[in-house]
Amino acid sequence: MQKDEAAARLARQASDALAELLEHVRERPTTGDRFDACSESLDELARAVTAIGEIVDGCTSRAQAEEDPDGVAARTRELATAIVRRRNSLLAENAAVRLRRTGPVPVRRVG
Q: Nearest CA to 86 among 27, 39, 32, 21?
């Protein structure tokens, strides 16, 4: 069996990119709305987590018919769902905070 050097190189690039993203998030100033800055990143991370689970499943299945023997893909889908759920709840909280800051939108009466 030969090593898949291309796959190892791609995995290393993904790992390096995630480490770089972590540093980027840590270095961001705490002023402003961190969620707005991270919203799209959270969506992409949810996709990445799902892909990681599928890759692990594909690399560790003993046979084509054997799907997710250790439940890794299922667990990563759960993590991706939790990321999206958290993003959505933060989005709702931010909308509520903005509404409190600006007040309700005045209703225009016609007539």
A: 39
Closest CA to 55 of 11, 2, 9: 11
Neighbouring CB atoms inside 10 A of 75's CB total: 14
Tens of pLDDT, residue by residue over 18-75, are 999 999 988 877 666 666 778 888 999 999 999 999 898 888 877 666 677 778 888 9
Can you tell me the distance from the alpha carbon of 72 to that of 65, in angstroms, rounded to the nearest whole number?
16
Which among 85, 55, 84, 88 is positioned nearest to 72, based on CA atoms? 55
- Report residue 81 as tokens: 């769902």
**Tens-digit pLDDT profile for residues 77-104:** 999 999 999 998 888 877 776 667 666 6
Q: Residue 61 in contact with residue 69, Cβ under 8 Å?
A: yes
CB count within 10 Å of CB 53 equals 21
The dihedral over CA atoms of 42, 44, 45, 46, expressed in degrees to the nearest 10, equals: 90
